[in-house]
């Protein structure tokens, strides 16, 4: 009785089907393939996978492909197919979907089961890829079915007892694939089957440009399905893996030869990496391609040359100077008169110091969709550089009008330049208020010079509380600078605080005993307090240190 029970249990779980092969076994056995994977050191790892369609799609395990630079698939007849690209990957479930270059070869493949298999159904594990022609498949019974990601099955079966069956295809009774076999790391434990519908559903999406699972495989990746998604994917790709990045761009160019951004991305990458000759070739090839948007090529070339010429370390390549950048953007505008090309032309003219022309181009954009604070600011800077103060504040006011209040951080630079111009015009109170706005936008991350300068303007505007606060902040930021203590002393004397003035002057002397100004200030303060002797002593010290102003003051003390 015990012997019979053991036999029954054995047949419930796993039985090599040697007595009678399923009718479909010979037809599908060739779908199982060996996969040789190579890393950067040339080391080879072997695993296996399965053809899931006649286009050369292979399903296999992720662990073997991680860090791979190339892979080769060998079919049952011994023919080798290099892996062309990765179609999708998931490290958590240890699966990869990839494409081999199979040409017009007719491949043996497995068909996906139309529906998941329920528990207690028999399944068949194909022999490992390099098994003999008459090697039997292994029969098993599904013990348990779990669901993951809401729609896919994760099957539990008994241990097949053969490590070489890892990643073998598992089929239902009709010979349709339900998944790939995954062996547990624990000895004599259960085996599992990952739903092949999940693996076949792996696709690369635009946001997968940063997918760490895919980035850990150094074989080229497939592009997302649509042209728009593929381009988004390219824009998001990490350029650090240059070979993979260029391979993806080349794939895009081959698939969409009339899409100019693909060629633009490649040419700009070559420019960034100093390969100017190749960048030039790509631009010229793109311009010779029928049906391509030539204005986009001219625009890209202009920007690339413009950026290079702004870099002081750039050594000129051929005729790639700022004049060339200007010519290329003019070509772009002639091909398609877009405002953005006018803006680039204005930038080039500004860099060439042709300020009157640049200002005209910037202002011509005021009536377009590119109207912005930067347009008016750039026009104002043309005047500032030429010392043409007329219209500068008007242009800066127009720039500020482009921002909503409270002002965003982007407005900080315009606010600072406008404050400087207000100060030049003697509008000191407005300048101080502008610098107040700038301080708020800077979150207080400013140096002592900023507060010292604002203190000077506040004094001119007779904003004494502000001036006192600013000189205190200045000293706090640079407590070793004697000039700031002397300035604090002079300001406190000015607002009727001689005692505070004397204390600040003493600190200035401590910081620099050879500095005459604080001695003069102390002399004036002591005189105001009626201490004539101390006043003369301090003023004489200032005179001895070369202060000419102290001479006139000491003669007035009776």
Question: Keywords for this structure?
Answer:
alpha+beta, Thrombin, subunit H, Serine Threonine Protein Phosphatase 5, Tetratricopeptide repeat, eight-stranded antiparallel beta sheet, six-stranded antiparallel β-barrel, 24 helices, 14 strands
Whole-number mean pLDDT: 92
- What would CATH call the architecture of the domain at 1-222? Beta Barrel
Number of helices: 24
Q: Report low-confidence residues grouped into runs of 5 or more.
A: 1-20
Q: Quickly give the structural class.
A: alpha+beta
Q: Which word captures the global form?
A: elongated
Order of neighbouring strands in the sheet with most strands? 1-9-8-12-13-14-11-10
Sheet of most strands: 8 strands, antiparallel
* Broad CATH class of the domain at 1-222: Mainly Beta
Work out the radius of gyration.
39 Å
> CATH topology of the domain at 1-222, which one?
Thrombin, subunit H
Write up this protein.
The chain is α+β, with helices and mostly antiparallel strands and 558 residues long. Among the domains are: 1-222, Thrombin, subunit H; 494-558, Serine Threonine Protein Phosphatase 5, Tetratricopeptide repeat, CATH 1.25.40. The chain has helices at 2-13, 25-28, 62-65, 196-200, 212-215, 227-236, 242-255, 260-272, 276-287, 294-310, 322-335, 339-351, 355-364, 373-385, 392-401, 412-424, 428-441, 448-460, 464-477, 482-494, 498-511, 517-528, 532-544, 549-556; strands spanning 14-16, 32-38, 44-51, 57-60, 70-74, 80-90, 95-100, 122-125, 138-141, 144-148, 152-157, 169-171, 177-183, 191-195.
């Amino acid at each position: 009785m015990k012997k019979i029970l053991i036999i029954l249990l054995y047949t419930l779980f796993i039985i090599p089907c040697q007595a009678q092969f399923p009718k479909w076994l010979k037809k599908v056995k060739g779908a199982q393939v060996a996969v040789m994977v190579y890393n950067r050191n040339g080391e080879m790892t072997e695993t296996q996978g399965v053809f899931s369609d006649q286009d050369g799609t292979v399903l296999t395990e992720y662990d073997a492909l991680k860090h791979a630079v190339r892979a080769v698939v060998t079919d049952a007849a011994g023919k080798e197919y290099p892996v062309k690209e990765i179609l999708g990957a998931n490290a958590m479930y240890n699966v990869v979907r990839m494409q081999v270059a199979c040409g017009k070869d007719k491949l043996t493949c497995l068909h996906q089961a139309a529906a998941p298999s329920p528990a207690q159904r028999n399944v068949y594990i194909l022999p490992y890829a390099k098994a003999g022609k008459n090697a039997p498949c292994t029969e098993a019974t599904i013990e348990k079915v779990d669901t993951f990601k809401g729609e896919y099955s994760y099957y539990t079966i008994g241990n097949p007892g053969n490590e070489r069956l890892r990643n073998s295809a598992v089929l239902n009774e009709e010979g349709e694939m339900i998944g790939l076999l995954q062996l547990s790391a624990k000895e004599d434990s259960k085996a599992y089957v990952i739903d092949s519908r999940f693996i076949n559903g792996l696709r690369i999406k635009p946001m997968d440009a940063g997918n760490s699972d895919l980035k850990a495989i150094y074989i080229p990746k497939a592009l997302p399905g649509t042209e728009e998604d593929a381009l988004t994917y390219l824009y998001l790709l990490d350029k650090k893996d240059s070979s993979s990045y260029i391979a993806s761009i080349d794939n895009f160019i081959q698939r969409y030869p009339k899409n100019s951004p693909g060629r633009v991305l490649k040419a700009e990458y070559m420019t960034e990496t100093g390969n100017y000759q190749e960048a030039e070739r790509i631009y010229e090839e793109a311009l010779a391609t029928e049906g391509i948007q030539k204005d986009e090529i001219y625009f890209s070339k202009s920007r690339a040359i413009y950026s290079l010429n702004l870099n002081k370390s750039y050594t000129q390549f051929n005729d790639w100077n700022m004049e060339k950048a200007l010519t290329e953007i003019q070509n772009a505008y002639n091909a398609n008169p877009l405002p953005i090309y006018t803006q680039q032309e204005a930038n080039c003219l500004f860099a060439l110091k042709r300020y009157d022309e640049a200002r005209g181009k910037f202002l011509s954009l005021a009536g377009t969709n590119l109207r912005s604070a930067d347009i008016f600011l750039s026009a104002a800077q043309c005047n500032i550089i030429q010392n043409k103060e007329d219209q500068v504040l008007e242009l800066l006011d127009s720039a500020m009008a482009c921002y909503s209040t409270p002002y965003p951080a982007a407005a900080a630079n315009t606010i600072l330049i406008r404050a400087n111009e207000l100060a030049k015009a003697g509008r000191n109170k407005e300048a101080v208020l502008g610098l107040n706005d700038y301080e708020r936008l800077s979150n207080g991350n400013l140096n002592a010079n900023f507060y010292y300068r604002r203190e000077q303007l506040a004094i001119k505007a007779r904003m004494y509380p502000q001036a006192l606060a600013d000189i205190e902040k200045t000293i706090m930021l640079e407590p070793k600078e004697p000039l700031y203590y002397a300035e604090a002393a002079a300001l406190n004397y000015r607002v009727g605080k001689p005692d505070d003035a004397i204390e600040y002057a003493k600190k200035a002397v401590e910081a620099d005993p050879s500095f005459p100004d604080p001695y003069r200030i102390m002399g004036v303060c002591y005189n105001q307090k009626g201490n004539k002797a101390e006043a003369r002593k301090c003023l004489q010290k200032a005179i001895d240190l070369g202060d000419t102003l102290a001479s006139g003051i000491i003669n007035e003390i009776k």
